[in-house]
Amino acid sequence: MEDQPNRLNFLKNTQIIILGLCIAAATIVSSVIFSKGFLSVTKFMREQISVTGSAQKNIKSDYGVWTGAFSRREIDMATAFKKLGEDLAKVKKYLASQKIAEKEIIVRQIETETIYKKNEKGNNTNTIEGYRLKQTVELRSNDVDKIAQISRESTELINQGIEFYSGSPEYFYTKLDELKVEMLAKSTENAKLRAENMVKATGNRTGFMRSAKMGVFQITPVNSTEISDWGMNDTSSLEKKVTAVVNASFSIE
């Protein structure tokens, strides 16, 4: 009977030792698992490649704006106003002969300048020498080829006795939002291809895309080599080149 308490104490001590060993083993296993997980996360965070992709596309403008101006200088304002009106009629007739619709023509208000006689020092006096009246016509159309033609040939009006000036036309592309989406997709594809070619040399392969950020988006004349950190939007050329850049990063597997 005296041995029974001793056996119970022995069993109790043995259980405590076994429980301690189990806890120690579990702690070691947990540490190993945690360490492997930490290493995997670290690897996940570090093993990536960042590249820049780009895409280009040539487009033709689909909307144009042109302005032309004409003026008259006369001694009295009434005569200048009358002759300017005659010039406007000739300008409209000319544009109509070029198949330009009335609704595409915007006639701006008349600008009036008083011309004063100058003294021997080149300064204005209070004596009025005459008046200069100027008027501008603006043409907006989707027929960009016609805009280009008018801007080149409208100086023929000078032969009709009109003091005419033809401004440089501006050309725009109206589907810019759709184009940006298309170019972003193409430049991202280019970035992925570049990343794959670079990683392939190391015997690895690229995984999923970690991040992507659109860089400069610029519109330049077709043969232009200009680059701007802020992007460009050329309006001087009928034929344009669109360039899109994207900065992307991919995981390495």
Summarize the model shown:
The protein is α+β, with helices and mostly antiparallel strands and 253 residues long.
Low-confidence stretches: 29-45
Order of helices and strands: HEEHEEEHEEHEE
Total number of strands: 9
If you compute it from the alpha carbons, what radius of gyration comes out, rounded to the nearest whole angstrom?
Answer: 39 Å
Number of helices: 4
State the secondary-structure class. alpha+beta
In this structure, how is the largest beta sheet organized? 6 strands, antiparallel
Helix content: 25-40%
What does this structure look like?
With 253 residues, the chain is of the alpha+beta class. Helix content is 40%, strand content 36%. The protein is built from four helices and nine strands, in the order αββαβββαββαββ. The protein has helices spanning 3-46, 77-97, 144-153, 176-200, and strands at 48-60, 63-74, 105-107, 111-118, 124-141, 163-166, 170-172, 206-221, 239-252. The strands form two sheets. Strands 2, 3, 4, 5, 6 and 7 form a six-stranded antiparallel beta sheet that branches. It has a three-stranded antiparallel beta sheet with strand order 1-9-8.
